[in-house]
Please model this.
Amino acid sequence: MIANFFNKTKPVNIINVLMLLFLFYVVSFFVEHTIEFSWGFLLNKTIYFFWLLLFILIFKFIIKKNKLTKDNAYALLIAVLILGTFPEVIFSNSVLFSNLILLLSFRKIYSLKSGIHIKIKLFDAAFWIGISTLINAWSVLFIFLIYVGIIVYQKISVKNLLIPIIGLTTPLCIYFTYHFYFATLPVFYNKFNFDISLNYLSYADFKHLLPIAFLILILTWSIVISTPKIILVSNHLKFSWSVLINHLIISTILIGLSTTKNSAEFFYLIFPASIIIGNFIQNIKSTILKNVILYLFLILSVSIYFL
Model:
């Protein structure tokens, strides 16, 4: 059964998750795109898959390093299934690279609980958010996640509150200086296009509506059931869970404001959503229920290509 198979973080499980990612990548490309094969095309798509692979591996490292789940591969599997459920996510260059850079920031934010090198971590986290902002302006919203981490992990001080601002503006100032020197400032200003779209009609398409509704349902269920157990019990996940919930809220706001409404924006939801759902699944006592949820995810991710 799938639940028992991914109940432990074994090398074979990681390999299977990565193979599943590759399968989604290949299938979604054939379904969503017209292919004109060439060696250049093959090289380009191979390199792009490498970046997706890197995202998953860094994601796994952050989970393990900060003990955001127990010793299982549920969160990793859910992350790949969400990628497969939204094919547009896989082929959005700017969204992928924005999230890949944000992972480097999240790594620092969730490790604040260790109490080691706090100031360096705050600067690094904000610095990476600044770079991601140059790819997608709305990524700047994640600066609030740093302050959530400062508050939740009880690292409040005047210096700690100011350092993220310095970290965020550093790459922006460097980028501004570059364009100022070459007299191309309009390129710099165009990076900060904070257009807002509240038109969600594209989500009414059944191909988008079904996975979005399922994801909202399982996320709500996970939060309602897991939060009281985690918050009331003093363990290593108690504080990180608060950060995860706020992470989910910020990601949801970003998706809601984004002008892109083709489901590629749901990439920003993968990190908090898969960890929250992964924690929920690992704490379910019924193996049957675990399998039902995972198989529903798998069936949905496959059937979406036939809608």
Residues 2-306 form one domain. The chain has one domain: 2-306. The chain has 14 helices and no strands. The chain has a mean pLDDT of 90.
